[in-house]
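Structure first, sequence second, as always.
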């Protein structure tokens, strides 16, 4: 079997005028072969830019045997060396192609991708969703969800305190402050210490991910599991965080970490250091989520999978079949390959527009002003001594 061509499908995946979400785009990839079989994948990492990268890479992939996945990935990494470190844009381009190759292989061998990645440890995977008020959580709890993430940059402490006060004790809560560049290490420690009493499943991206030593300083001073990794690619992006025992939960993004093989290597590195695996999924489309499901099904150190319940309407139109979700868990499918296909006619209804969070960027930069408000709700630094 030989690869003959690659199609890309870029779409708008946000809510109009909704700021950050309004800028969300999804990029799906279809890799075709001379036997009529094709595979689907999804790339994140700045989808509109990644689409161009995939066009540049396509001539290197055409004519190759789609079964030799690792070899193709290595060739694409070498092809990008002249552009500097690969980063999440380059890794995102490789990821979409790589994911589609796993789909081809599974379909050709008539077996699910999880079977190619080592076999199933889990038949279903626990999900968490985003919820910021007790009412939202209660609505999702009626569907069986028992784990929620909130936070943001404006009032993370107040939101967590309200949820912990109003919800049953057995509900798991997570705080994500998205590692804004204006948040200092001492502030992240102060916030983390104030969050300790709420017994979080994890405290995510307490500072910007660029300096592992900064996250390490937070981790040394805060008695909560620390999670990070969504903005990194390859094992190298998270190596120090894992090997130095800085983080407790690693969160690679299934659309831009470098592909399912790269994710599997990250998971193995994490497992050897007692670090749990909880892929980032908040901005991803449904194909990458399904790829994460196949991988996570094989992992003994899988913790929990991010999932947007009640996402934008187009999510439920552009892929079929839709995942089966039962009582807050996603069912690992038994169909060959990834077990899903994209719907190009539906994707065409949502033309790509913008792909940067410009409407709210100023708001976000100014969020340092909110720091005073949410830190004033936390104990003073002297109280920790
Ligand atoms: Mg996050």
């Amino acid at each position: 079997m030989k690869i003959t061509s690659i199609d890309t499908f870029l779409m708008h995946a946000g809510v109009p005028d909704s700021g950050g979400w309004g800028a969300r785009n999804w990029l799906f990839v279809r890799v075709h072969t001379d036997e009529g079989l094709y595979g689907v994948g999804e790339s994140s990492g700045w989808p509109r830019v990644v689409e161009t990268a995939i066009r540049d890479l396509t001539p290197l992939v055409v004519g190759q045997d789609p079964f030799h996945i690792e070899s193709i990935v290595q060739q694409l990494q070498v092809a990008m060396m002249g552009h500097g470190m690969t980063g999440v844009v380059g890794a995102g381009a490789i990821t979409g192609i790589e994911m589609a190759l796993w789909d081809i292989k599974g379909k050709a061998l008539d077996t699910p991708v999880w079977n190619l990645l080592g076999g199933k440890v889990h038949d279903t995977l626990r999900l968490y969703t985003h919820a910021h008020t007790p009412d939202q959580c209660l609505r999702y709890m009626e569907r069986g969800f028992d784990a929620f993430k909130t936070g943001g940059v404006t009032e993370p402490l107040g939101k967590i305190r309200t949820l912990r006060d109003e919800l049953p004790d057995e509900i798991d809560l997570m705080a994500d402050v998205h590692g804004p560049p204006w948040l200092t290490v001492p502030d992240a420690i102060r916030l983390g210490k104030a969050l300790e009493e709420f017994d979080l499943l994890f405290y995510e991206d307490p500072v910007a991910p660029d300096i592992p030593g900064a996250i390490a300083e937070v981790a040394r001073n805060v008695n909560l599991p620390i999670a990070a990794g969504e903005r990194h690619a390859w094992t190298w992006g998270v190596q120090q965080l894992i090997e130095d025992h800085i983080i407790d939960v690693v969160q690679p993004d299934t659309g831009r970490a470098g592909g399912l093989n790269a994710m599997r290597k990250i998971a193995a590195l994490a497992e050897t250091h007692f670090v749990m695996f909880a892929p980032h999924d908040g901005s991803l489309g449904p194909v990458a989520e399904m790829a994460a499901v196949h991988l996570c099904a094989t992992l003994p150190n899988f913790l929990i999978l991010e999932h947007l319940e009640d996402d934008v309407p187009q999510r439920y139109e552009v892929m079929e079949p839709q995942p089966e979700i039962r009582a807050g868990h996603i069912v690992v499918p038994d169909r060959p390959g990834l077990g899903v296909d994209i719907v190009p006619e539906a994707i065409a209804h949502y033309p790509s527009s913008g792909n940067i969070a410009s409407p709210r960027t100023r708001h976000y930069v100014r969020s340092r002003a909110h720091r005073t408000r949410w830190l004033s709700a936390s104990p003073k630094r002297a109280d920790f001594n």
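Margin note: Residues 3-111 form a domain with the Enolase-like; domain 1 fold (CATH 3.30.390.10).
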